[in-house]
Amino acid sequence: MVMLPQVEHELHKRRRSRNLGLLAVLLGFVALVFGLSIAKITSGDMLEGYDHQPRATMLPKDPNPPVPNAAPVAAPGTPGAAQVKP
Amino acid sequence: MADINAYHGPAEAGFGDYVALLKPRVMSLVVFTAFVGLWIAPVSMNPFVAFCSILFIALGGGASGALNMWYDADIDAVMKRTASRPVPAGLIPKQDALALGIALSGLSVMMLGLAANWFAAAFLAFTIFFYAVVYTIWLKRSTPQNIVIGGAAGAFPPMIGWACATGGIGLESLLMFALIFFWTPPHFWALALFMNNDYTNAGVPMLTVTHGRKVTRRHIFGYTLVLAPFAIWLGFTSVGGWIYLSVSAVLNLLFIAGGWQILRRGDDAAAADKYKVEKRYFRLSLYYLFLHFTALLVQHWVGAW
Fold first, then answer.
1. Can you give the pTM of this predicted structure?
2. How far apart are CA B284 and CA B102, in angstroms?
3. Cβ-count burial of B25 within 10 angstroms (0-12 exposed, 13-18 middle, 19+ buried)?
4. Does ipTM top 0.85?
5. Residue ranges of domains in chain B
6. Would you state the CATH architecture of domain B16-169?
7. Nearest C-alpha of chain B: how many angstroms from A6?
8. What is the DSSP string of B98-111?
9. Partner-chain contact A39 B12, CB within 8 Å
10. Which of B19, B189, B215, B278 is 20 to 30 Å from the Cα of B48, by its Cα?
11. Under an 8 A CB cutoff, do B14 and A14 touch?
12. Which of A15-19, B92-96, B110-114, B171-175 has the lowest mean pLDDT?
């Protein structure tokens, strides 16, 4: 059997440098986005964004909140309503 | 006999050739000035977010460099200084440079918007447009004022850095812009005085080619006079102080003195000593900008006004 000489062409060397370089860049980008997420979350910016659903916690605070009724009002036509009438 | 070197197709570019496409030397200036703009701004940023912002500004600068190499491949091939760039050297096809430039522009603007704010991102997008389209495509080949207006692209990075931190523009960031903007023409014209033949061969209308060297010398001196008040003014704003003012005063005196020497010289005298004064002035211009921004950093560190 004939053994062929294992000589690497310069072209393949360049191609490998390109592929490894791109790998490093992509891994670096992943690390960067992950780090940015951590930095943004831990820096305490507004964490609760609009999530396509109205939520009570997102509403501005009402300066004059309705006062809870001390005396319950019976619904008209019910026995309770007939009793209360003077 | 079989020959392993039988393949003679187009040369393959290595990773380094793609890095060279982003003009790493220009990028280093962008990184430095943008960092200073961001750091001395009155609003502090999370260090990692600041790091990412600078990185994306640099990437945007690199993208505009790739777009410049795509459009200028024909004249780069003619000029000695630029003939070995990856596109004219035949390592990277023109279309690849264009594709990389556009992709990195989009990526850098989007990521800067997410990392810092959308005002800074829009500013970066405008800067890339300004360098790649306004300077490279519209002005460079049509007017000898090309580098005066194109210099604005190089002057935006500290303003973008400032915008990353504050979300806007301030007097200080405008003065940092003015510092680089008025510094650029004398810096490049001094280079053109001793690299003249390159630009003539490429047909780029440098001032030395269109209006002669005498006019260029006058312009260099004129711009050093315009530059000085802006550099000193920056020392009286909220980012200035005694250290910056002293450094700036010395540098501006040297710069004006150098400009005066260039103005007083004829071309015969310059050719006789191989443009010694012009080369020294060019080197001084590099120190001028570097030391001004370093002084701003030091001033911020010890405390401004």
1. 0.84
2. 35
3. exposed
4. no
5. 16-169, 170-305
6. Orthogonal Bundle (1.10)
7. 10
8. HHHHHHHHHHHHHH
9. no
10. B19
11. yes
12. A15-19
